[in-house]
Amino acid sequence: MGLTANPAYEPLFSQRDSDGQFTDRTTLLREIIDYSDADQNAFDIGQLITNNVTGPGGGGPEDNFYQSLRPAYMRRNSPFDSVNELRMVRGLGDDDLWAAIVDPDPSNPRRRNLTVWGSGQVNVNTANAQTLLALICAFGRANLACNDPIAARRFTTGITMVQGFTVSMGLPIFGSPQVFTATLQGRGMLGQLFKTMAGDQPIQISDTASLERAITVESKVFSIFAAARVGLSYTRIHAVIDMRPQPQIDSTFLRVTTGGSDIPPPPPVIDVTRPNSVAAGPSGQIQQVDERGGTILYWRED
Length: 302
Hints:
- This protein folds into 3 domains: 7-111, Ribonucleotide Reductase Protein R1, domain 1; 122-216, no CATH class; 222-301, no CATH class.
- The protein has 10 helices and 9 strands.
- The chain has helices at 10-14, 25-36, 45-49, 95-101, 129-139, 144-147, 149-166, 177-184, 191-197, 208-213, and strands at residues 41-43, 58-61, 122-123, 215-216, 221-230, 233-242, 269-270, 278-280, 295-301.
- Helix 5 (129-139) crosses helix 7.
């Protein structure tokens, strides 16, 4: 919601997109949710806008928009595998809109504004300036930086300058979500700076508790890029690693049985996606998975 709020983007939502359709802001938000949720019902976008989401679906059956395209395809109705899969969503096939709200500079991953591998919260210590502005606009009310493109540019420029002295050195700005919201409202050491960047006005938050639930001050899922060039050959690897503890594997298909006392027990079953982890021991019991190396969520080699 925040990423699409900039008034300068109005032409992108009032003209036909690459599919020949008019896709306004609320339609785009609904399509992103409907493409990746598990049900066949249209999401009631009004719930999201009023911050009163009561459950999945809520509307009538999802339409057959994607079946009308050539080539036709179905909504995924499950989580996205990659950021690029967002291109399949109605409206996001448009290059100008994609550059504006998703990936302004494909050669610089740090400038990407959103992810499909997140934990559901935004790390305000590492998010870029546009994402922070999007958070403020999604949870704020009548803030100058959300309605005036010049004020928005001044705000993002100021945040980028501050992060040049903090994020680049690995120094967190905010110790907790509460410190972040207090700073937005003009309190604390950085509060006055934020107030100046927002046009000499305290930033108004309509629902502080909801904003604090939407943010975090540490990251657990990371994108790692490695690139190499040899002569005219170039390759890049992108891996997404989840450092959160994973649940124990409790299914039966990995259990091991000996088949008889005269047959030596087989070796432990190794889960190759979790280095040095044992999924099932010689007697068939489920073992604890070692998560120190993280879990690979995504891997791409170009």
